[in-house]
Amino acid sequence: MCDTSNAMVRMIEAILQRKYPQLEIAATISQREYEQRDAIEADFVISTVRIGEKDKPVVTIAPFPTDYQLDQIGKLVLVDRTRPWMLNKYFDAAHFRVVDKPMDQQTLFAELCQQLLEEGFVDAEFHASVVEREAIVSTMLGDGIALPHSLGLLAKKTVVYTVIAPQGIAWGDETAHLIFLLAISKREYEEAMAIYDIFVTFLRERAMSRLAATRSFDEFKTVAMECVSRF
Q1: Tens of pLDDT along 2-51?
Q2: Are 74 and 97 found together in one domain?
Q3: Model confidence, pTM
Q4: Same domain, yes or no, for 45 and 69?
Q5: Pair 193, 127: CB distance under 8 Å
Q6: Among residues 106, 127, 155, 197, which one has the fewest Cβ atoms lying within 10 Å of its Cβ?
Q7: Same domain, 48 and 11
Q8: Three-class secondary structure assignment of the chain
Q9: Between 60 and 76, where is the model more confident?
Q10: Under a CB-based contact definition with an 8 Å cutoff, are residues 177 and 212 in contact?
Q11: Which domain holds residue 132?
């Protein structure tokens, strides 16, 4: 929310988007428009002038934001939005599957990797690398959650393939009920590392049983969002 020139608004937006790419700017309005609104739907308000809160946090910044002001925005962006944003970006219905029949690990790898190959997410060597990585040491995270992945950053585009296995799939000496096949590209490596925070959150929230009980991507996403939005 600004009472400055359009050029200044665009510059501020550029600074914010570069610093926090997950930040979604819902609208840019004048002080008058803000004062006339009964409520604000956005998660928080960034303003270049002092204004009152309308049940949402307000961060006041200078036209050239200081590091402190950017950090204040970061506290609102990173704490509340990063994990949900990652969930929206890298998890989708096209890469969600419920395996409701007996299946072994190798068959699962072959089917998932073939789909990713056909869709252009990975090259042919990705499948062999996932198998090789699993042979070195189990990718079981714990509590029935497995995170198979390739030895290197072999994906062309980053995606997480989610598999729900109600009957369980033998995973070394354990059984996996929730499998997340990670295909991570070099270009998105640093950003995608935050995906691991999502899985750690699932463990901390003891969410495996609730997630494993889902039978559609919408159900899965609802439960997952509840977990990752608590922190």
Answers
A1: 555 688 888 888 888 888 888 888 888 888 888 898 888 888 899 988 88
A2: no
A3: 0.68
A4: yes
A5: no
A6: 106
A7: yes
A8: CCCCCHHHHHHHHHHHHHHCCCCCCCCCCCHHHHHHCCCCCCCCEEECCCCCCCCCCEEECCCCCCHHHHHHHHHHHHHHHHHHHHHHHHCCHHHEEECCCCCCHHHHHHHHHHHHHHCCCECCHHHHHHHHHHHHCCCEEECCEECCECCCCCECCCEEEEEEEEEEEEECCEEEEEEEEEECECCCHHHHCCHHHHHHHHHHCCCHHHHHCCCCHHHHHHHHHHHHCCC
A9: 60
A10: yes
A11: 86-229
Distance CA 156, CA 177 (A): 27
The mean pLDDT value for 183-203 works out to 88
Task: Answer yes or no: do 161 and 222 share one domain.
Answer: yes
Residue 143: closest CA among 168, 110, 125:
168
Tokens linked to 171: 């995973």
pLDDT tens-digit readout, 194-220: 888 899 889 888 899 999 999 999 999
Q: Considering its fold, how many domains does the chain have in total?
A: 2
Asked if residue 161 has pLDDT above 90, the reply is: yes
Render pLDDT for 64-75 as a digit per residue (tens, 0 to 9): 889 898 888 887
CA–CA separation, 179 and 139 (whole Å) = 10
What pLDDT score does 148 carry?
98
Give residue 121's pLDDT.
97
